[in-house]
Amino acid sequence: MTKLNSTARRLGAALLLSTGLAGAAFAADKPLDGVTLTIASQNDQFAAVIAKLAPQFEEKTGATVKVDILDYGSLLTKTQADFVGHTKSYDMVTMDIVWAGQYADNGYSVDLTDWIKRDAAELQIDDIYPAALKYIGQYDGKQVAFPFAGYAAVMAYRKDLLDAAGIKVPETAEDFVEAAIKLTDPSKKIYGFVANGQKGAAVAQDWLQYNAQLGGSVLNAEGKPVLNSDANIASLKVYKELFDKAAPPGAVDYDWGGREESFRQGLVAMMETWSVGAPGYYDPSMSNIVDSVAITYTPVGKGLPPKFGFGGWGLAINNDIDEKKKEASWEFIKWLVSPPVHKEMNMLGAGSYIRKSTLADPELNAKYPFLPIIAKSFENADGDYRPRIPQYPEIQDLLGTAVNAVLVGGADPKAALDEAQKQAEKLF
Amino acid sequence: MTSISAGTASVPRRRSGLRFTDRRKLFLFCLAVPAVAYVIAIAVYPLAQGIVYSFYDYNLLRRGGRMTFVGLENYRELLTDATGQRALINTFAFTFGAVVFEFVLGLGLALLLWRDSRFNRIALAFLLIPVTITPLVVGLIFRALLAVDYGYIGYYLAEWGITDPRGLFAGTSTALPTLIFIDIWEWTPLVALILLAGLKSLPGDILEAALADGATPAQRFRLVILPLLLPTVFLALVLRMMDAFRVFDSIFVTTGGGPADATNSMMVYGVKQGLQFFNIGYASAIGNVTILCIAFMAAAFALLIRRADVRANET
């Protein structure tokens, strides 16, 4: 009995030892085993793709990644509540380019500056467009998020309609306005232009894009608001003229969805938009214009330097979570932006670019012919035309009301912007 | 027997040192504690905190969420600022427009449905369908119906030149009336139902006496039915008024307060300040002013109901 017992004990010990060794080897293979990371993600094209790729990260590192996909308003509300209440519901948050000021001011997220320096080689940082790093996440000397989805403002147009009217693709903003009005023929239900007209963020963001191309800006060199500058008033008059003479009547109530749909349905000849929507124009399941659509640079005002709107999303690591989770989140970010994964992400239709090598990739270029336009736009990118300051949400709302009032309420552009300026000054 | 019962009654008094009435009070107090605690937790405490916050400049997104005491500044700002004034005016206009039409139409419907017949019972069931739909969904349905590009109604209205080609929601002069119309569509049946219940409970003998005395239908309505129905009328009005004053869902999903500020209501403005800009101090002031307006109107109606009740009983 005693002998049996000692044999059993030895066997048990050997078994334990071997299990322990195997476990150790397993742990070395999968350093993040048992860690669960939760991402609050904007419901853009990349969200479903990240959720689809996440199991690959789990296979590689052992960490489970959950992606909570939210619309813009819910994402903002839920993540702010999480940060303010220190509830640690989310380990990582997709951060819109314009939230950088708030994140930096309030210390919501981990400052990634040192980690980026430490892992520069692994990140192949030189392959990432400087504009992406600068605008998505850099603020006040901090890197509050790491870019993973850069969007370029581009112009989408209908080759067939422009050819039929004998109009060249506009290269300046002035040509754009002229062409848009000429191409409009309500009797045939063809309109030269479409943009967001709906009150709030929708109309504000689209007007800011046209405003920047026409030489306007929200802040002056000292960083103070100049909403009622002469350039802004002039550009708002142009925007109103476009809506009155060249846009579908319903456009005054369009947000991004309505605007894109009207273009895909073949109602509109030209539209400025984010590059992320472009794959949809080539998708026959949702687009009527697959064979006639083309993408080019956004036209800039005559005599102004070529500058192209830049936007997009970065991943920010919640500053409230513990060190181990912070490190794990950083591992995930490095994995997601690594060249092979980033290429796969875009092959799956994420429309999210930050790397020169991805935009130059032959396989991706064969699938999406407009990538050189994005690459060139990224080289002359302007990510500050929507100022990334903490007061941006309120300024956007003031402009969203003022511009909408001009478009549909018959308000005078100067009076509307004067009122918005008065309100904006109170925020500084 | 008497001595036994007296004995049992005296024992607990000696034990607890409390008299029967005190024990009863204590027992009733204990019964009330959960309800009172609940009310304090979900109503009194947030209300009190909202009042405190409204005296502060308190934004969660700026300056690390620090609070600065500003006294009545938030209220001054709300009442002098063009957007705040617009929101207050819009809310009163919406409430007045919606409640008046709902009352007139609801009373008409109630009178039509008063006679108890199979047709009326079936008609009432159908009429109540709008009430069962969430206001948010009603807003989404009307938004789709009135869209000029694809809406079943909006497209033809614009095509035939009845409305502006941009649609009813895009006009500063048509957006608020359209929202009032939606509210009337949804809530008139409820007003009709409340008034119908009132009509059905009217004493039959008085109505028969009026008929026997040779009163015309108009006289019967003006001199008999309406005075007797007044408490129910006020009840319907106060319920709808309180509800209409805090309108949010239908506006939020159709116009978002636009075009310009043409349909911005107090609740839409408050939610934007509180949950979009996290401007807690200012949002609290908006909420408190809304509560005050509703409380004043409700108090006025309560007074009217009481007076009408007294008069109806006297008759």
UniProtKB/TrEMBL annotation, chain A:
Q: What InterPro entries does the database record attribute to this sequence?
A: Bact_solute-bd_prot1, SBP
Residue span of the signal peptide, if any?
A: 1-27
Which Gene3D superfamilies does the UniProt record give? Periplasmic binding protein-like II
* Family annotation (Pfam families): SBP_bac_1
What this protein is called in its record is Multiple sugar transport system substrate-binding protein
Report keywords, A-Z: Periplasm, Signal, Sugar transport, Transport
Q: Which GO terms describe its cellular component?
A: periplasmic space
Query: What is the protein's species of origin?
Result: Kaistia hirudinis
Give the subcellular location.
Periplasm
Family membership: Belongs to the bacterial solute-binding protein 1 family.
Protein origin, superkingdom: Bacteria
From TrEMBL, chain B:
**One Gene Ontology term, aspect cellular component:** plasma membrane
Q: Where in the cell is it found?
A: Cell membrane
All copies of the ABC transmembrane type-1 domain together span 88-301
Give a yes or no for keyword RNA-binding in this entry: no
Q: Which UniProt keywords apply?
A: Cell membrane, Membrane, Sugar transport, Transmembrane, Transmembrane helix, Transport
The topology of this chain with respect to the membrane is: Multi-pass membrane protein
Top-level lineage group = Bacteria
One Pfam family this sequence matches: BPD_transp_1
Q: GO BP, one example? A: transmembrane transport
Identify the InterPro entries for this entry. Answer: MetI-like (IPR000515), MetI-like_sf (IPR035906)
PROSITE patterns membership: ABC_TM1 (PS50928)
Q: Does the keyword Transmembrane helix apply?
A: yes
Annotated TM spans: 26-48, 87-112, 124-146, 184-202, 223-242, 280-305
Main location, first listed in the record: membrane
By sequence similarity, the record places it as follows: Belongs to the binding-protein-dependent transport system permease family.
Q: PANTHER family, alphabetically?
A: BLR7065 PROTEIN, SPERMIDINE_PUTRESCINE TRANSPORT SYSTEM PERMEASE PROTEIN
What's the protein called, per UniProt?
Multiple sugar transport system permease protein
Q: Which organism is it from?
A: Kaistia hirudinis
